[in-house]
Write a structure and sequence with these properties.
- With 238 residues, the protein is an alpha/beta fold.
- The protein has 2 domains: 145 residues, NAD(P)-binding Rossmann-like Domain (Rossmann fold, 3-Layer(aba) Sandwich); 76 residues, no CATH class.
- It is 46% helix and 15% strand.
- It is built from 9 helices and 7 strands, in the order E-H-E-H-E-E-H-E-E-H-E-H-H-H-H-H.
- Strands 2-1-3-4-5-6-7 form a 7-stranded mixed β-sheet, with helices on both faces.
- Helix 1 links the parallel strand 1 and strand 2.
- The mean pLDDT is 91.
Length: 238
């Protein structure tokens, strides 16, 4: 980066936003934070916590949108030289929002699409079609995170095959497993499944589930499961 970046974090009180807020602080970068759910949050420095999205747009050169990409409808302008970083677990959803934003007459900024995997490797998947990708990659590295360049289809397929199965099983089975557990009707494998799904229950709030189930690659996974079930049924002569 050829200049000092001023960072904005929208959704700064959320799970991802609070982590990025800490990463920005640890990198000694100037930052301004905003969260529509708590515009006067006590979790931030009063000198950097703003009460409106407009102040973020006015002050910041890089803006992390740590909220569902569909909520960018509240953003109506960005200047040349500013970068909006969309965070969504489904890159296809971010691409749709990016296309809509670029059609807005007063939007002249750049858009990057990323997904913070929040794993032990601190990986951030960066969409290969992002604007100013080198600037974004350098910024993410400075935050102490590890950028990995990937295209939309591959990323969303990986998420459908690794993140979504837990969510699907949770929505399908968690209440049934709780009932079976109360009746002492679970095998050890059933108990292990129940424990694993309960462990993720706090994470499967409405917004993460909405994002996960919007993944267009999920249909392919469900189709593969159906085909495998039919193949196993025929193989075993049932």
């Amino acid at each position: 980066m050829t200049k000092t970046e001023i960072i904005g974090v929208v959704g700064a009180d959320g799970n991802l936003g609070s982590k990025l807020r800490d990463a920005v602080r640890n990198a000694d970068l100037g930052a301004f934070c905003y969260d529509i759910a708590s515009p006067n949050s006590e979790n931030g420095d009063p000198e950097t916590w703003t009460s409106s999205l407009g102040q973020i747009v006015e002050k910041c050169t890089i803006i992390h949108w740590c909220a569902p990409s569909r909520t960018t409808r509240t953003l109506t302008e960005l200047q040349d030289g500013q970068v909006l970083i969309l965070h969504d677990s489904v890159m296809y959803s971010s691409e749709l929002s990016a296309a809509r934003l670029k059609a807005v007459p007063d939007f002249a900024g750049s858009i990057a699409i990323v997904h913070c995997l929040m794993n032990q490797d601190r990986t951030v998947a960066v969409n290969s079609g992002s604007d100013e990708i080198e600037r974004v990659r350098e910024h993410i590295t400075r935050l102490g995170l590890n950028p990995v360049i990937i295209e939309t289809g591959e990323h969303d397929t990986i998420m459908a095959e690794s993140q979504a199965p837990f969510a699907v099983l949770h929505e399908l089975l968690i209440e049934k497993l709780r009932g079976y557990d109360k009746r002492k009707l679970l095998t050890p494998s059933g108990q292990a499944l129940h424990v694993a799904l309960e462990d993720r229950s706090a994470s499967w709030t409405a917004e993460p589930l909405r994002s996960i189930f919007s993944n267009p690659q999920l249909a392919g996974l469900l189709r593969d499961i159906t085909e495998l079930a039919e193949k196993l049924r025929k193989t075993n002569g049932s």
